[in-house]
């Protein structure tokens, strides 16, 4: 027994002297990989259990704070020790790229694994222990506690970047929020470029525009995949497609940038030698793409080859531009500058992938910045090209003036062409809006999710247009005090259609974020967070100070049901909720008189409908109420009580024999008349009442009614 104790102490001593990460202020939120030790297992012959129980393995110290492991198919064991010298800390540990196949973390103690976390894109996204596109591990450290860890990494041939960041929880969420905003802006710009250049292509029928559209689209998906969004949102359960997304999008990016450049430079007409050269690169890329689809060694070697071909291809474009200029061919200066910027960013990115550059984050940022600046330069070149085409058009018109009959025929022909183009554009725009509808539908909770959180409920949701400014939100949360709360919200954004839909995306995003922040524990605090986010996103204060008032915002109600405590938590921005209950003793309710109104009907003597009003100011209003916070109310509820939350679309709908608004009074009577029915039957009654009242009239607004039985 004594010998065994001595052996354990020696093992722990060996671990401690090899290096230690101490969670001080200068270490937190920075990468610390050089304080860890790595062991390569090229043949997959070791397991974690054998490594923990013996000290004969030759671990080597990592040299850099942010290490890069070149293209590899090996299994890597990373050993490190972390000490918390101060008070209790909740740490978010970030490591490896989002596209790393396996990233598993194990806490060991006395030769045993006491806790483990699973991550990496070789498993379905839902199986990750922490649902985030990156590899994130939440770790709790008690005061003055030291913990010992092993990290197991596997890749299918891609480079492994090894940041070792121990984030303070609040700093992690702040940084993650900023990253989300940056990526939203970046991907939004790329999507906008595709949209605009698509119309250029339709109008001008120039194939270089088509190649450019495809190039930007693949650039979009390359960055989308590198950041882990493709795995999280597009292929969360399709591991084969998720693992090939980076290779395919990288190959597509280079393939179409070469086609775009050769088309713009007219390489085929100007130089047969350069044309054959670029065709050879395109054939090589095509072969590599086929190889990458075959799992195993062929897939693994595709990573370095495709990076090498990409580097050669992009540099060759710049050389071709120089050669064309030397031969006296005119090459647009903005086009040349755009490719110079793009290729500089691409070269830095590829050199980072090849391990030549030390900091992979710099190389990835270089590609983003390069592509963004390139878009600006190419937009200028497109303006010049459009001007040239306009001048050619004017010359053709001057020539046509010599013959009146030809002028009439030409104009008639152009009118018909324009009509067809407008019809085609309308069709394309309608298709884009319908695609936005699919995106909006994806952010709304599914019927299954609604029933999972609120089993006894209904939602009546009917957009006025294809997309809606109204949306509903349902989520189950646990408060910092450990209470389990079922949240639901009915939100009415400013406007409807596409403008309203954009506001709904913002609102849904901030409501989702509020459920993940530990300091937010009441509906009022969630609305304050939403209000602050809308102000920042739309720059409301700055615009109003400049004399450009922004009146975009939203009215909503946010409710939380605590079934264990029989309590309803409520906060509202301008809107109210209706509660139907047998509890008439509202004097004891924690709600001031300005926020409550009771309706009793003789026909239903044992029930009362209580209107609980939200605050008078909406989300996003600048001026009188800018500095006011939202009030949270705590209401007693009983089994079978009903809660109704809604937008103003139903009560404001015109109809009936006198073609007037339906009104709040009628709406209350409707709810009292159907409250005893099942929730599905209530939904049918509400829809039937709305359609009967509306008649032949069109919807004036989006419609949203939610009903929940406790």
Please indicate the percent range of residues in DSSP E strands (runs of 2 or more): 15-25%
Relevant CATH superfamily of the largest domain: PPM-type phosphatase domain
Corresponding CATH architecture of the largest domain: 4-Layer Sandwich
Helix content: 40-55%
**Distance between the amino and carboxyl termini:** 60 Å
Shape: flat
Q: What is the CATH first-level class name of the largest domain?
A: Alpha Beta
Helix and strand content put the structural class at alpha+beta
Q: Describe the largest sheet.
A: 7 strands, mixed
Number of helices in the DSSP assignment: 18
Which whole number gives the mean pLDDT? 83
Question: Radius of gyration, rounded?
Answer: 31 Å
């Amino acid at each position: 027994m004594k010998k065994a104790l001595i052996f354990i102490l020696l093992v722990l001593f060996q671990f401690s002297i090899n290096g230690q990460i101490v969670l001080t202020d200068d270490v937190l939120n920075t990468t610390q990989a050089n304080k860890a030790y790595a062991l390569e297992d090229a043949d997959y012959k070791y397991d974690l259990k054998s490594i923990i129980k013996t000290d004969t393995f030759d671990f080597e110290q990592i040299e850099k704070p942010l290490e890069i492991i070149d293209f590899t198919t090996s299994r890597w064991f990373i050993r490190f020790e972390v000490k918390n010298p101060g008070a209790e800390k909740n740490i978010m540990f970030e490591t490896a790229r989002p596209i790393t196949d396996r990233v598993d973390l194990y806490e060991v103690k006395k030769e045993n694994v006491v806790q483990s976390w699973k991550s990496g894109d070789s498993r379905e996204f839902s199986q990750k222990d922490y649902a985030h596109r990156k590899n994130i591990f939440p770790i709790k450290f008690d005061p003055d506690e030291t913990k010992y860890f092993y990290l197991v990494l596997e890749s299918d041939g891609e480079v492994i970047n090894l940041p070792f960041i121990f984030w303070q929880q609040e700093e992690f969420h702040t940084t993650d929020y900023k990253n989300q905003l940056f990526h939203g802006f970046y991907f939004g710009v790329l999507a906008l470029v595709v949209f605009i250049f698509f119309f250029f292509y339709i109008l001008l029928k120039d194939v270089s525009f088509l190649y450019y559209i495809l190039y930007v689209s693949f650039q979009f998906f390359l960055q989308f995949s590198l950041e882990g969004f493709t795995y999280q949102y597009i292929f969360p359960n399709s591991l084969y497609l998720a693992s090939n997304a980076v290779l395919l999008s990288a190959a597509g990016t280079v393939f179409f940038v070469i086609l775009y450049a050769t088309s713009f430079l007219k390489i085929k007409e100007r130089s047969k030698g350069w044309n054959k050269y670029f065709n050879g690169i395109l054939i090589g890329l095509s072969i590599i793409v086929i190889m990458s689809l075959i799992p195993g060694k062929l897939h693994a070697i595709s990573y370095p080859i495709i990076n090498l071909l990409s580097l050669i291809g992009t540099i060759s474009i710049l050389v071709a531009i120089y050669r064309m200029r030397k031969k006296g061919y005119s090459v647009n200066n903005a086009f040349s500058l755009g490719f110079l910027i793009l290729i500089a960013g691409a070269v830095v990115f590829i050199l980072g992938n090849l391990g030549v550059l030390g900091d992979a984050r710099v190389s990835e940022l270089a590609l983003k910045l390069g592509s963004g600046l390139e878009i600006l330069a190419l937009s200028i070149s497109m303006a010049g090209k459009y001007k040239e085409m306009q001048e050619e058009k004017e010359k053709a018109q001057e020539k046509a003036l010599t013959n009146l009959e030809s002028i009439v025929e030409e104009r008639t022909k152009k009118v018909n062409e324009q009509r067809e183009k407008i019809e085609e554009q309308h069709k394309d725009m309608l298709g884009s809006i319908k695609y936005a509808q699919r995106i909006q539908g994806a952010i709304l909770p599914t019927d299954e999710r609604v029933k999972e959180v609120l089993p006894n409920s209904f939602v009546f949701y009917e957009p006025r247009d294809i997309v809606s400014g109204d949306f509903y939100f349902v989520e189950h949360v646990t408060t910092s005090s450990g209470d389990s709360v079922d949240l639901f919200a009915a939100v009415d954004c400013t406007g409807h259609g596409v403008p309203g839909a954009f506001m709904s995306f913002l609102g849904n995003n901030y409501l989702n974020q509020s459920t993940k922040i530990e300091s937010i524990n009441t509906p009022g605090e969630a609305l304050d967070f939403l209000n602050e986010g809308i102000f920042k996103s739309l720059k409301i204060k700055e615009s109003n100070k400049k004399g450009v008032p922004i009146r975009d915002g939203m009215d909503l109600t946010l409710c939380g049901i605590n079934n264990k405590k029989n309590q309803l938590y409520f906060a509202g921005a301008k809107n109210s909720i209706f509660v139907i209950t047998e509890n008439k003793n509202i004097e004891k309710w924690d709600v001031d008189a300005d926020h409550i109104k009771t309706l009793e009907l003789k026909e239903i003597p044992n029930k009362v409908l209580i209107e609980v009003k939200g605050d008078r100011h909406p989300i996003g209003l600048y001026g009188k109420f800018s500095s006011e916070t939202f009030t949270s109310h705590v209401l007693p509820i009983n089994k079978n009580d009903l809660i109704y939350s809604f937008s103003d679309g139903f009560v404001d709908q015109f109809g009936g024999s006198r073609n007037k608004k339906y009104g709040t009074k009628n709406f209350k009577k409707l709810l009292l008349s159907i409250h005893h029915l099942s929730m599905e039957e209530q939904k049918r009654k509400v829809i039937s009442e709305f359609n009967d009242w509306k008649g032949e009239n069109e919807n004036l607004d989006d419609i949203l009614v939610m009903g929940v039985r406790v």
